[in-house]
Q: What sequence folds into this?
């Protein structure tokens, strides 16, 4: 597969779906002032490259992962970048934020059991060099969540942008 960077139109299409996952190709085309065929072609290309996919989930609890867990990680300041990268590479962790304040790092993930949370903390996170302490909090009721504020972006999109991938084929 040829590596290319996402262009401005690809980003706008993704952003449009982030705001309204039910938007039609026609609505997006009108919004972005391009043809419906252009939108359809771009979406197919993004899907084929596994940069986007569509899933209908009423609640994360219906996705087979009933426990939203926040992990506050205290660590040696000089080790924060390496620890953050190690957390990013753990498939169970969906969000990693480097912090100023109570924690050095805040990580979030969806877990199918509390045993799984316990295991990842003891056997993987606490063993990372520089980790001093891990505090876990489990969400019991989401009052409000808006993906445009705290969006957890697909790892494939982040990797594509980091590696200079573009959705346009160059001939």
A:
């Amino acid at each position: 597969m040829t590596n290319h960077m996402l262009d401005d139109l690809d980003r706008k299409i993704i952003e449009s779906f982030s705001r309204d996952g039910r938007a039609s190709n026609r609505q997006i085309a009108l919004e972005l002032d391009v043809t419906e065929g252009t939108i359809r072609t771009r979406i197919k290309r993004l899907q084929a490259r596994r940069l986007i996919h569509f899933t209908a989930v009423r609640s994360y609890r219906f996705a087979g992962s009933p426990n939203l867990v926040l992990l506050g990680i205290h660590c040696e300041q000089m080790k924060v970048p390496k620890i953050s990268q190690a957390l990013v590479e753990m498939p169970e962790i969906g969000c990693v934020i480097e912090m100023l304040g109570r924690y050095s790092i805040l990580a979030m993930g969806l877990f199918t059991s509390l045993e799984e949370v316990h295991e990842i903390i003891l056997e993987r996170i606490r063993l990372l060099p520089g980790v001093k302490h891990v505090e876990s909090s489990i969400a019991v009721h989401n009052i409000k969540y808006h993906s445009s504020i705290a969006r957890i972006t697909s790892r494939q999109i982040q990797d594509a942008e980091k590696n200079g991938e573009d959705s346009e084929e160059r001939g």
The longest strand covers residues 67-75. The CA atoms of residues 134 and 169 lie 45 Å apart. Residues 60-138 form a domain with the Alpha-Beta Plaits fold (CATH 3.30.70.920). Strands lie at 67-75, 93-98, 105-111, 131-138.
